[in-house]
Design a protein that fits this description.
Structural class of chain A: alpha/beta
Oligomer: heterodimer
CATH topology of the largest domain in chain B: MetI-like fold
Number of strands of chain B: 0
Largest interface: A-B, 33 and 24 residues
CATH superfamily of the largest domain in chain B: MetI-like
Distance between the termini of chain B: 29 Å
Helix content of chain B: over 70%
Helix content of chain A: 25-40%
CATH superfamily of chain A: P-loop containing nucleotide triphosphate hydrolases
Number of helices of chain B: 12
Radius of gyration of chain A: 21 Å
Radius of gyration of chain B: 24 Å
CATH topology of chain A: Rossmann fold
Order of helices and strands of chain A: EEEHEEHEHHHHHEHEHEEHHHEEH
Strand content of chain A: 15-25%
Number of domains of chain B: 2
Number of domains of chain A: 1
Distance between the termini of chain A: 15 Å
Strand content of chain B: under 5%
CATH class of chain A: Alpha Beta
Structural class of chain B: mainly alpha
Shape of chain B: elongated
Order of helices and strands of chain B: HHHHHHHHHHHH
Number of helices of chain A: 13
Shape of chain A: globular
Largest sheet of chain B: none
Largest sheet of chain A: 8 strands, mixed
CATH class of the largest domain in chain B: Mainly Alpha
């Protein structure tokens, strides 16, 4: 893996929501690092705090959210301390965001073209005509045919995949260095999904983007990630290179997640994770995953595990890595699959 | 539309004709004179014959003449005389209410759940639930009678500023409702649009909160707004029925009330018809405007 220069560092970020039923601790001390030119994936199930984390980075949290602690360092600036005006200069220009649902993220009553030129014209460096040219070029770049004609159309005349391409074009209009993709393919068909992922990878090469990719789909992770962060109950529980996570998962949640993905050899019942994610109104003490982990030890319920170092790139927060912890067996499905993957070697 | 109009016309005719008393009730007339007049207008025949007689005349453009309010003047000429003041009043009140309503709605939505929103919402509830004639009488009493800032009733004979001053109160009375409606509607639409996904996208492009709100949310909220503003014209026409009477304005609304109470039957039918045509026309206009304003409907047929 590349150990490039870090472009975005999130340190000990905690975000809570004030609701009528109490304070929801959505993100609890998340730290991660994005290096120039790499793609990191943040993996986790719904409600694990992935989306809240990226919304915090973009400064588009709803008013009920409060940043409790932590810093987001982007090129020497702490994004959590920016005023609204300063943030408007970061958004789109430095960091672009692609949303989950392309069906609702475009303004239904505005022509596609205007939605793109609107972004281009913010910097006031272009005439309207130039912006039009640039927007048509962008539409072509994200793989939309007849961009001239499409420019004049409305979102409802586009399919889901095409709309997501338009959203990507908008996100890239002002040449940001960092692109955040918040589950960009979840709402799309599988075939369209692959094309969008390829497009994002291709654009990453061309434009030297650094990408934060949020997903719950491990297939997508395998396709995209240089490094992977696994998130559970508002915390990062394990991180490492894609190889680290896929071949040597250490945290019981990461293992369970991997074991629940079907592959060509899967027979019989698909492995699932028992129980439900914790209610973040009452965040769990200790390891958040302990109640769903059949190998959980007493200490898992009582004390929060620190990050144990597995290798230079691979860390996990689980007591099972403590020197005095008993050996916990890898799930059978997973052991078998990892063996095949290692044999397959470069096939991945 | 023609069928609807025909049904309305029929019902109007029946209702009016079923009222007791004669058009020509007048203590100065002897029974013979009344009977002669009725015979001339074919009012001595059964109602079904009267009805066909009326339809025949209507098709030829002869809607009958007014009897009491403006004797022997064709009914539509009577209405024509009354229209300008009604229209003037309504248009002015709409021109006042729209900007105020839009402004208040925007302020409320942008400051959702904060003080300005609470104040505006409180006023809106009051303006919507209190009928315009209550405001009219209150203002007439306090502003015109007690304070003496305005004339108590409208004076048609006054010229220049005096005339407009006498129009102020009725205009205000007519404006409260529409202001409240526009405010409430726009606030709701804006709040919905402000929290939509495409607003987030607009902001991640780098637009400031206000730019994004104005260019995306506000614009999109105005689309459905157009469809409540158009019917408001009819709403105001209806409201002026009572308000015109309170301020003694010689408009169409007042004419309707007068014609009913003096049993000037032909005139009543004509005024009812006038209102119906406006309503139907408004509905038609709303339907057409949907297509013009919303591209999804405009272009839907092409696919």
């Amino acid at each position: 893996m590349k150990t490039g220069e870090s472009i975005l560092t999130v340190d000990n970020l905690s975000v809570s929501f004030r609701t009528y039923s109490g304070i929801v601790k959505a993100v609890r001390g998340v730290s991660f690092e994005l290096n120039k030119g790499e793609t990191i994936c943040i993996v986790g199930e719904s409600g694990s705090g992935k989306s809240v984390t990226v919304k915090t980075i973009m400064g588009i949290l709803p008013p009920s959210a409060v940043i409790e602690s932590g810093t987001i360092n982007y090129k020497g600036m702490d994004l959590t301390k920016l005023t609204e005006e300063e943030y408007a200069r970061i958004r789109g220009k430095e960091i672009g965001l692609i949303f989950q649902d392309p069906l609702s993220s475009l303004n239904p009553l505005m022509k596609i073209g205007r939605q793109i030129t609107e972004a281009l014209l913010i910097d006031k460096e272009m005439s309207k005509r130039e912006a039009r040219e640039a927007a048509i070029e962008l539409l072509g770049a994200v793989g939309i045919r007849d961009p001239e004609q499409r420019f004049e159309q409305y979102p409802f005349q586009f399919s889901g995949g095409m709309r997501q391409r338009v959203v990507i074009a908008i996100a890239l209009a002002r040449n940001p260095e960092v692109l955040i993709c918040d589950e960009p393919t979840t709402a799309l068909d599988v075939t369209v999904q692959a094309r969008i992922l390829n497009l994002i990878n291709e654009l990453k090469q061309k434009r030297q983007l650094s990408i934060i990719f949020i997903t719950h789909d491990l297939g997508v992770v395998a396709h995209m990630a240089d490094r992977v962060y696994v998130m559970y109950a508002g915390k990062i529980v394990e991180y490492g290179t894609a190889e680290d996570i896929f071949l040597e998962p250490a945290h019981p949640y990461a293992r369970a997640l991997l074991a629940s993905v079907p592959d060509m050899e899967t027979e019989g019942r698909l492995a699932s994770i028992p129980g439900a994610p914790p209610n973040m109104l009452h965040p769990p003490t200790g390891d958040g995953f302990a109640p769903r982990n059949k190998y959980a030890m007493q200490i898992d319920f009582e004390e929060e595990p620190p990050m144990f170092r597995i290798s230079d790139t691979h860390y996990a927060a689980t007591w099972s890595l403590h020197p005095s912890a008993p050996e916990i067996p890898m799930p059978d499905v997973l052991r078998e699959r990892i063996r095949r993957m290692k044999e397959g070697g470069a096939n991945r | 539309m023609c069928i609807t109009l025909f049904i309305i016309l029929t019902i109007a005719f029946m209702v009016v004709r079923l009222m007791p008393g004669s058009v020509y009730d007048n203590p100065e007339y002897s029974i013979e004179i009344i009977q002669a007049l009725e015979a001339k207008a074919q009012l001595d025949k059964p109602w079904i014959i009267q009805y066909f007689h009326f339809l025949k005349g209507a098709l030829r453009g002869d809607w009958g003449v007014s009897v009491k309010i403006a004797p022997c003047v064709p009914v539509f000429d009577v209405i024509k005389q009354r229209i300008p003041i009604t229209i003037l009043l309504n248009i002015i009140s709409l021109v006042i209410s729209l900007p105020i309503g839009i402004l208040a709605g925007t302020v409320a939505a942008m400051n959702r759940s904060r003080m300005p929103d609470h104040i505006i919402s409180f006023l809106v509830v009051n303006f919507i639930s209190v009928p315009s004639f209550v405001f009219a009488t209150l203002m007439q009493y306090f502003l015109a009678f007690k304070a003496g800032w305005f004339p108590i009733v409208y004076s048609a004979t006054a010229a220049g500023t005096a005339k407009y001053r006498s129009m102020m109160l009725p205009m205000l009375a007519l404006s409260f409702g529409p202001i409240a409606t526009v405010t409430r509607y726009l606030r709701g639409e804006l709040i919905e649009n402000l929290s939509s996904e495409y607003m987030l996208l607009a902001r991640t492009k780098g637009l400031t909160k206000y730019q994004a709100a104005f260019r995306h949310a506000f614009r999109n909220s105005c689309v459905p707004l157009a469809n409540i503003i158009i019917p408001m014209f009819t709403g105001i026409l209806g409201g002026s029925l009572v308000v015109e009477r309170i301020f003694a304005i010689p408009g169409v609304g007042g004419l309707m009330v007068e014609s009913v109470s003096t049993s000037d039957h032909f005139l009543t039918v004509a005024v009812l018809l006038f209102y119906s045509v406006i309503s139907l026309f408004t509905i038609l206009l709303v339907d057409i405007s949907y297509g013009i304003i919303d591209p999804r409907i405009r272009l839907g047929g092409n696919e």
